[in-house]
Amino acid sequence: MSRVRFLMIGGFLGAGKTTAIARLARHFMDQGLAVGLVTNDQANDLVDTESLRAQGFNVGEVTGACFCCKFNGLLDTVSQISQDHRPDIILAEPVGSCTDLVSTVIEPLKRFYGDEFEVGPLAVLVKPEHGRKILSGDASFGFSPKAAYIFLKQIEEADIVVVNKIDKLDDAERATLLQLVRDRYPTKMVLAVSGRTGAGIADLVKELRRPSPTRKEAMDVDYDIYAEGEAELGWLNCLVTLESRDATREFPLDDVVLELVDRLKESLLARGAEPAHLKVLAEADGESAIANLVSSDAEVDLSRSAGISASRAELIINARVAIAPEALTEIVAETVAGLARQYGWEHTVADLQSFRPGRPMPTHRIGAE
């Protein structure tokens, strides 16, 4: 039996991993290959998972910690995906605040499960919104140096550095960001792509066909700084139901997610809280709308349009923000209530999870003995 090709696409929160993975999955499926996707998060109720499933992909998820700390959970999830239809390729999306993936995921797969998996190179997407500031040393990037440490370590361990979202950059911005990456990491393979439009994806696919390079030693990672950088972020997932008091009055799903994220942005700005990624999905009648915010100085983006109106909708809110989780909970609750009150909607909030990520405790760390 042939081995499953395992490809991990990393990058910081808001780097566009889910959109890029969907683009890659469609590319491989168009070649007649079976593809399985694995998402990963510190909590349950993921916008990414629901978004990918809505697009028809075979998706499993690992929640409660990153792949490195839930290595066996990753294997179990891949096994579950394979029960109905064994994939030729697994595309795995790690938590956006995670690094040291080569030593804790890729090398263990190669050493212990090399007869099952053909592991490809690690591609790491660079997020332009914070990348320009962090790579240039701009002190106004919105996160502490400890969070920036994670961002830079992700790029350091990459086999392929992928500057994503080039459709949102003009020529000068694109050239500047690419040069910043190449100046700091002169030996890296650097590509420019747009997961949304598909620009540059063929080049990325070409590089992903290569084998994972041999590493002689683990990347040097200060786990104290790493843990403190992750813990800077408040993490919130919750489910929200919105319903018109008058069933004959419907609301456009696209407008709901855009306005909710915009109001959350304004509330976070008022607290001086930098968002790493904020995502809201609204679903009704089998259609879904998704709005995103990836930094304080970015515009709210409608990444998926439902194009319908409804009198009732189910929402998933995922927020990763540099603020205490208690304050984040208060902001989300007040914003949802204010929106519902203004438009005369009933609302409920359920399954709310709000916390700071705990210290990473990898199952394996090869090359670090």
Q: What are the SSEs and their pairings?
A:
Blueprint (H helix, E strand, L loop, with lengths): L3 E8 L5 H14 L4 E7 L5 H8 L3 E6 L7 H14 L4 E4 L8 H12 L4 E3 L3 E4 L1 H9 L8 H13 L2 E4 L7 H14 L4 E4 L8 H8 L14 H9 L2 E11 L6 E2 H19 L3 E10 L2 E7 L7 E4 L4 E2 L1 E10 L3 H19 L1 E11 L14
Parallel strand pairs: 1-4, 1-5, 1-6, 2-3, 2-4, 6-7, 7-8
Antiparallel strand pairs: 9-15, 9-16, 10-14, 11-12, 11-15, 12-13
Helix pairs in contact: 5-7, 6-9, 10-11
> From the helix content, strand content and strand pairing, which structural class follows?
alpha/beta
Kindly state the number of beta strands.
16
Largest sheet: 8 strands, parallel
Tally of helical runs: 11
Oligomer status: single chain
Shape: globular
State the end-to-end CA separation. Answer: 33 Å
Low-confidence stretches: none
Mean pLDDT: 96
Order of helices and strands: EHEHEHEHEEHHEHEHHEEHEEEEEHE
Evaluate the radius of gyration. Answer: 20 Å
The share of residues in extended strands comes to 25-35%
The percent of residues in helical segments reads 25-40%
Summarize the structure.
The chain has helices spanning 17-30, 47-54, 71-84, 101-112, 128-136, 145-157, 171-184, 201-208, 223-231, 253-271, 325-343, and strands at 4-11, 35-41, 58-63, 89-92, 117-119, 123-126, 160-163, 189-192, 234-244, 251-252, 275-284, 287-293, 301-304, 309-310, 312-321, 345-355.
Outline the structure in words:
The protein is α/β, with parallel strands linked by helices. A hairpin with a 7-residue loop joins strand 12 (287-293) and strand 13. Strands 1, 2, 3, 4, 5, 6, 7 and 8 form an eight-stranded parallel β-sheet that branches. The protein is built from eleven helices and 16 strands.
